[in-house]
Design a protein that fits this description.
Length: 222
């Protein structure tokens, strides 16, 4: 039986797999959403390949007449942008990005310089800040974190020390990996900062509730 209720597809981030999105999916399901946890090889392929594989997966498993919600953590949010830009034929209802470096990632830049295998093919076209823009008319909510804990803190601290007297210094809060300034998306529908680290987005129930609020109403609760 065909339904016009959106299917919510959840994408994980770098160095992760679909298992990590299970807590978010379960919370959204309790809130009435139909969810699918989509997995991809975050290091092994460039962003264009991730978009193509998502497109092919949907062609096989999804009725194009049924709208889609897309929720992406970190790199997953960039894949959403690239996918919508590249495959505009899909009926997109609403999208949410969680801790996504829409402006590029200082952490990823240092990892690329010092140990490039740890960022793999996720840098060029994505974490370097050159992901295609979100098309106009797409409702996307952006949630950023400002709890400064995590493995990325060392990179962020080093960056600001190195450029403390330069315009390259990045000020403001961060989630331990992504600066708030990196999370800004110019044509986002709504933007919300929450007290979470980069790794907490997918397990925090308040974040999940806010995701549900945006998917239902096109805005975050305040």
């Amino acid at each position: 039986m065909m339904t016009n209720k959106p299917l919510t597809v959840i994408l994980h981030g770098l160095h992760q797999n679909r298992l990590i999105t299970l807590p978010l999916a379960r919370t959204l399901q309790k809130d009435g959403f139909d969810t699918v946890r989509y997995g991809y090889a975050s290091l092994g392929d460039p962003i264009a390949r991730h978009s193509e594989r998502l497109h092919q997966w949907l062609l096989t498993h999804h009725n194009p007449k049924r709208p889609l919600n897309l929720v992406g953590h970190s790199l997953g949010g960039l894949i959403i942008r690239h996918f919508i830009h590249t495959y505009p034929q899909w009926q997109i209802h609403r999208c949410v990005s969680l801790g996504t470096p829409h402006q590029g990632s200082v952490c990823a830049n240092y990892i690329k310089q010092w140990c490039s295998p740890l960022v793999g093919h996720a840098y060029v076209g994505a974490l370097d800040g050159t992901c295609p823009p979100l098309p106009n008319g797409i409702e996307m909510g952006v949630i950023a974190g400002d709890k400064p804990m995590g493995v990325g803190v060392a990179f962020l601290t080093y960056h600001n020390f190195r450029y403390k007297h330069s315009s390259l210094t990045v000020t403001g809060g961060h989630d331990g990996t992504v600066y708030l300034s990196e999370s800004v998306l110019e044509n986002a529908t709504d933007y919300l900062v929450m007290p979470v680290t980069h790794s907490q987005f997918l397990i925090d129930k308040t974040v999940a509730w806010q995701v549900g609020q945006f998917l239902k109403f096109g805005r975050f609760a305040r």
